[in-house]
Amino acid sequence: MALSITVSGCATGQKFRGPITIASNSEIIVVSASARQKPDGILVGGDVHRSNGYAGAIPGHLHVIGWDGAGNAVATADVPWGEFMSRRFRLAYFKAFLPTNNVAAISKISIEPVNP
Prior knowledge:
- By secondary structure, the chain is mostly beta strands.
- It is 0% helix and 53% strand.
- It has strands spanning 2-5, 14-15, 20-23, 28-38, 41-50, 61-67, 73-79, 91-99, 108-114.
- The radius of gyration is 14 Å and the shape is elongated.
- The model is unreliable at 3-11 (pLDDT under 50).
């Protein structure tokens, strides 16, 4: 399932104005994401939720892609989602950096979980 969200901001850098498309699978749900432009790339962060609600570690990572207006991947990052907190919160946090010499070339970002 893919979902396009409006971004909210981090503490520093100009807010990324393009869409962020998040996808989920049967084990991992990307709950929220935001992005900020930096001089040498885009910093993306957010929360993921484990569908079964358990705490602890689960193998896998998030595949984060920065796309240009023509649909070409211009920056990618594979990042872990960290350890899921207590069952009460069921969230893990992620941070990814999409390095690029031309931040303006990235018009949209996609995030999807990858489990082994």
